[in-house]
Design brief:
The protein is an alpha+beta fold. It contains 6 helices and 9 strands; from the N terminus they run H-E-E-H-E-E-H-E-E-E-E-H-E-H-H.
Length: about 290
């Protein structure tokens, strides 16, 4: 009898273990799907800048810009894999007729995803031959030294072309040309917290002449930097927007005051007309 009881208890425990294992598998599967769907939702939802890159002025000093069309497949790839916001625009200097293409991309959801868009990876993928890369720097209009890498590429005959590409990054508010800061496991981790101040931005200015990109970089870089969170997470471009809004509100108030003054003047005119009418009626009765 005792052996029978032990055997039954053993069978019960076996069934209990199997049921527990199945429940654990089901719960882990459900948890995985929930986490996967949550991460997918996070990745599919871009982390927005306080002021979008599209708000960058189309005219900066003598430079007048127009947006360049991006192939639909390229745009979809960028938005799906790494870009939370981007801008590609050609600026032409009205005084010198020099031109420069400005490409800016902001990556916060998956900062490490920008690695596939490095000039020495992206340009050869488009049929360009890499000639050289060298470190350099330029001095912005405010006197700030900006480090950069300058890349040179060409396309072989029969369609011979050449281009010079200025490239640098902004990593969490700091300017850098070192890709190691966001290429390791720590830099590749997704931005689950959705913090817009944790990001990598890539700035590229390209043209056929090096002098053109140097002049464009001097005139535009400080303004471009205002659109990204600095080391303290602050965005200066937002302040400018607020100032513009305040100016707009002041103009609106002035307009309302002018409208009120106009209404008062109209009332006074109507009162004068009434007085004139009464006087005229008195004269008629006499």
């Amino acid at each position: 009898m005792r052996d029978m009881r032990l055997k039954k208890m053993g069978n019960v425990w076996t069934w209990f273990i199997w049921i527990l294992a199945i429940l654990l598998l089901i719960s882990s599967g459900v948890t995985y799907r929930l986490l996967a769907s949550h991460l997918e939702l996070l990745f599919d939802t871009p982390i927005l800048l306080p002021v979008p890159l599209s708000a960058l002025p189309a005219q900066i000093g003598d430079w007048v810009g127009r947006d360049l069309a991006i192939p639909t497949t390229t745009k979809e790839y960028m938005e799906k894999n790494f870009a939370d916001d981007f801008l590609t625009r050609r600026y032409i200097n009205a005084a010198t007729k020099a031109w420069a293409d400005v490409y800016i991309v902001y990556c916060s959801s998956r900062p490490g995803g920008i690695l596939g868009h490095r000039p020495r990876v992206c340009y050869p993928g488009g049929g360009w031959v890499h000639d050289s890369t060298e470190p350099s720097q330029f001095i912005s209009r405010s006197g700030r030294p900006i480090p950069w890498l300058i890349h040179r590429f060409h396309k072989p005959a029969p369609t011979y072309e050449q281009t010079v590409v200025l490239n640098f990054y902004i990593l969490n508010g700091q300017i850098t040309v070192d890709e190691n800061g966001f290429s390791g496991p720590w830099g590749r981790r997704p931005n689950i917290a959705g913090d817009p101040a944790r990001y990598v931005a890539q700035i590229q200015i390209s043209s056929v002449l090096e002098n053109s990109i140097r002049e464009a970089a001097k005139d535009m870089t400080e303004l471009i930097l205002d659109y990204f969170p600095d080391e303290n997470g602050e965005v200066r471009a937002e302040v400018r927007g607020q100032r513009s809004e305040i100016r707009g509100q002041k103009l609106e108030i002035r307009g309302q005051r002018s409208e009120i003054r106009g209404q008062r003047s109209e009332v006074r005119s109507q009162e004068k007309m009434k007085d004139f009418y009464h006087e005229d009626m008195k004269g008629t009765k006499i």
